[in-house]
Hints:
The complex is a heterodimer.
Chain A: E1 2-9, H1 22-31, E2 34-41, H2 43-46, H3 50-60, E3 68-74, H4 82-92, E4 97-100, H5 112-124, E5 127-131, H6 154-160, E6 166-169, H7 177-184, E7 189-192, H8 201-205, E8 214-215, H9 225-234, H10 239-265
Parallel strand pairs in A: 1-2, 2-3, 3-4, 4-5, 5-6, 6-7, 7-8
Chain B: H1 2-15, H2 19-23, H3 25-41, H4 46-50, E1 57-61, H5 70-83, E2 88-91, H6 103-119, E3 124-130, H7 135-147, E4 153-156, H8 168-176, E5 181-186, H9 199-208, E6 214-220, H10 223-230, E7 236-239, H11 249-257, E8 262-263, H12 273-281, H13 287-309
Parallel strand pairs in B: 1-2, 2-3, 3-4, 4-5, 5-6, 6-7, 7-8
Helix pairs in contact in B: 5-6, 6-7, 7-8, 9-10, 10-11
Amino acid sequence: MMIDVNVNLSRWPFRRLPCDTHDRLTLKLHQHDVVQAWVSSFDAVLHRDIGGVNLRLAEACKESGNVQLVPFGTVNPMSPDWHEDLRRCHEDYRMPGIRLVPNYHDYSLENAAVAELFQLAENRGLIVQIAFRMEDPRTQHPRLQVPDVDPAALSALAGRHPRLKLVLLNWQPAVTGTPLKQLAAAPNVFFDIAMCEGVGGVGSLLETVSVERVLFGSHVPFFNLESSLLKIRESPLTPEQLKAITHENAARLSADGASRVTNANS
Amino acid sequence: MNRARQVNAMSFDRTRISRRSMLRHTAGVAAAAALAGRQSASASGQEDERSSKPLIWDVHAHLSGVAGTPEERIKKLLEYADRVGVDRVVFHLGFSRLTDPPPDQLRRDNDEVLRAMAVAPGRVFGFVYLNPNYVDESIREFDRCVTDGPMVGVKLWVAARCHESRLDPIVQHATRAKAPILQHTWLKTVGNMPGESTPADMAQLAARHPQATFIAAHVGGNWEHGIRAIRATGNVVAELSGSDPTAGMAEMAVRELGADRVVYGSDYGGRSLASQLAKVTGADLSDEAKHLILGLNVRRILGPICRDKGIGV
């Protein structure tokens, strides 16, 4: 039983991917015992009608079948009236969290709107995912080169919002050294393993980040799901560590989020 | 396509990690280690062909990502290989990772790989690291490590772009010894290093040497360009290591080149074995194609030189 916290629906703008249809994606997840996927939409990376993207995402996730697709709508705090997007994600679609793609949406984490968004998300009990990259800059389209998100401001932000659960996606190699150590020390920051690289990378990560805050993420369908599956085999992990990473940590996070959503709507 | 999908669906089961399999993790690791040990002891490789598990041969590995002497590093690196079922590994470069190493540094780098090879002969293979900026010294180093030593191929990195004519004597010398040449290739959107070869450079060099066998390491990173760049040059095979495990890479390589021109490599320890292996195990390809990519093609490529040296493959 696994929970994948880093899954995408719809089409990547620059190539067709083998599992970029709903049926093939859910079949793939189901075949590998993924019972729940936290899903955003590739459309949110470049589309400016984020409201439409989130509506389609919420509808698509109702067709879950064997895999529970949990929608994480995207909010762009540079977009006019983004507060309404946040409200809809929480109140209309009952999403447990949102995703940010700061590099494609062209803002820094130092922007004052990010602090405001964090405060509102904390008040609503929403999980906030931050995608530090979608694609290696070395392989991006030459007319759309997007650098990784700079993590420098994040540790302080996380400290100012201790009840906010932050999930870092595709964070390696953008987050290393001192920023990684600072974020690893923040109890409300979680790390996925989709871009955790280097031999025995997950095991190495556990030398810095406590196992309770490491989550199984795959970046499917952009990546092959087997990458993250094999990563947890490559590192020598105990059965307890495997259970924590593959589903227990995410289940605890989403249960917290669900209870907060219920409380907010009651 | 339907048959391929059916076969692929069966393949999924091999890499599937269920809760039960996770709980059996420790036992599984031991079994994998035992299997790898049994396979490395097989001189003919016939055992691997008959078994359901494909022979997995990683053609691109470095003594990095772990600490210690060459002997200590290789033991740790092979433990990781055991965990994901990689049977045989080709190492190259040394600890220094200098991009333009002088001859004395080349020798030290290659000595480190030779020491690692001695720990597990028949499982750990080596390609000699050469520098086209020192042609005469590189040919002498080739003779030391390949002609008179146990290495079975050449590694060229980023000292000089490989389409340049100064590489020709090295290629001719390696070809006479039946040694394949693995050349780093990238085509970075952010720009290559001055001596960094593109797949198009690789194709130019290969066209001048039709008898030689070339391995385009990373197949350009930007693989949609890289695969096309080498497509018309039949003596170049695409090697999949060193870029993100982007879905569709192996499928395009097989579609455009044929499965017999694609090989698995990882670039570990800088990379994860897992992410690179997933490019093949997770691909929408037939089992037959996957077996070729994962090991049979490398065995075919290294067969002639290994037979001359009396090394069982």
